Amino acid sequence: MFVTMKMNKKPGIALVCFVIITAAFLQQANAQQKFEKAAFYEVLASGNIDGVNNEIAILADASISNKEGYEGALLMRKAGLVSPAAKRLRFFKEGRIKLETALMADNENTEYHFLRLAIEENAPKIVKYHADIEKDKLFVQKNFKNLSPSVQHAILDYCKKSKVLHAEDL
Hints:
By secondary structure, this protein is mostly helical. Helix content is about 70%, strand content about 0%.
């Protein structure tokens, strides 16, 4: 009977160890998710609320210094995906503050100008966020060639549905 009890304990201990090691590995893998611009733009274009929330979480844990503009764009995108209207307005305002703060800190960041342009072009008129469309369009056109390939690709994809920004102008 002692041998039987000893044998029954070993599989239980092995199972517990396996579960602990697996949980630790999954936690480490999630913590190591890093911000990737291609994935960010894919989520932004998709309009998937779970994807937006996941990307916001990745940015929150990311160690990049200029993440406020990206967070702002995601929050404003999220505003269009939630209800009720009060929640939409809260997310939009929070995102607008983050994106505008990022632009004030780094006004030469072409990517932030593109993000603002994309949001301005698609924002409802009631939020009165359309004042810089032409300025941002010209800034993006002027600096397009200096952007990374993943950002250029995102802009070219956006041009397919934009009424303001066209691929032939880049």
